[in-house]
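Hypothesis: this fold can be encoded by more than one sequence.
Test: take the structure tokens below, design a sequence, compare later.
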């Protein structure tokens, strides 16, 4: 790892929306100078196979370093392993609950807890709907301890034409929120400028 390279931890838990984690890894690979450390939960591996044409092993191949969810002695389980933060994409309610309550029963949730205790950003792409009060309270608790709550809600002012447009726009905004510049999302310049851009 060079002095300019950033390490970023990526967790994929078992919620629907596995394509967000996959596209995130693809985007980070294209950006370069980012060393990705990936944990795929057992439920996520099952959901990848259910929702996409990807094999979980091919998803792992997109990352620089891959860990098993039970490997609690891994590098990312320690705060002394410096990173730029962590993204959980998608984030299930189970993982949200564990992170919100510092219940570190696997490497994904332990890695998130480590980032938080070291003051690093942890962005949770919480994927569930509709939400009951318990879900909302979990998100509030996660936000109180420092998490960024970032449900994959599409922005339609960019007039997306395909599902890929929607996915890319969300992933681009997630990366931008953590300081990774990219051209995947639509930047709002104001209504007048937007009309001009759309017209020609």
């Amino acid at each position: 790892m060079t002095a300019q390279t950033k390490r970023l931890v990526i967790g994929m838990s078992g919620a629907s929306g596995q394509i967000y984690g996959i596209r995130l890894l693809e985007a980070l690979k294209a950006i370069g100078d980012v060393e990705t450390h990936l944990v795929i939960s057992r439920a996520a591996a099952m959901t990848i196979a259910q929702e996409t044409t990807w094999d979980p092993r091919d998803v792992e191949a997109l990352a620089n370093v891959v860990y098993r969810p039970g490997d609690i002695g891994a590098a990312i389980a320690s705060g002394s392993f410096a990173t730029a933060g962590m993204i959980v994409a998608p984030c299930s309610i189970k993982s949200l609950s564990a992170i919100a309550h510092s219940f570190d029963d696997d490497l994904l949730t332990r890695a998130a807890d480590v980032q938080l205790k070291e003051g690093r950003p942890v962005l949770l792409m919480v994927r569930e709907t509709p939400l009951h009060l318990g879900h909302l309270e979990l998100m509030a608790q996660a936000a109180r301890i420092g998490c960024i709550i970032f449900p994959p809600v599409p922005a339609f002012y960019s007039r997306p034409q395909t599902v890929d447009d929607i996915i890319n726009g969300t992933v681009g905004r997630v990366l931008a929120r953590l300081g990774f510049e990219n051209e995947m999302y639509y930047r709002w310049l104001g209504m007048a400028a937007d009309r001009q851009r759309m017209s020609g």
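DSSP finds eight helices and six strands in the chain. The mean pLDDT is 95.
Hypothesis status: open.
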